[in-house]
Prior knowledge:
single chain; 146 residues; mainly alpha; 42% helix
Amino acid sequence: MKSLKYILIPVLGGLLFTACNNAPAGPTQAELDTQVEAKVKAATDQLATDCNTRILQAAQLQADSMLAKLGNKPTPIATKPKTTKPTPPPPVKPTPPTIGNGKPQMGGQDPNKVGTGKPKMGGSKNEEGKVDDTKVGSGKPKMGGK
C-alpha cells in the first residue's frame, strides 16, 4: 500500500501542474506562414537582382570585347543583297490511280469495282469454257482434272 502512495502522489502532482499551464508555447500557424512568406520573398528578390546583375555584366563584357575587336575600323556601309533566281520546285510525281476505297488499281480491271479481297482459284466454267467469276464455289479444293 505504501508503494502505491509513492506512485500515486507524483502522478497527481504532475497532472495538477499541467492542468494549470494552458498558455500557448509558440507562435500560431498563421504567424509562422507570414514570416516564411516574407523570408521567401526577400530571398527570391535577392536572387533575381543578383542574376540580373550577372547578366548585365556578361553583356557589357561581350560588348566591350566586340568593340575591342573592331578597334578603329570604320563601320561597313550596308549594301544591297544580291538577288538570286528562286530555284524551281521539283516536278510533282503523279500518284498511282486508286479505286474508291484508296486501294491501288490492279491490272486492267474496272477502277470503280471493288473486289472481295480473296484470290481467285479457277472457279467453275460457263458454256463458252471461260471461268465464271460470278459463281461462288464450295471452298473445297478440286482434286480431279475434270
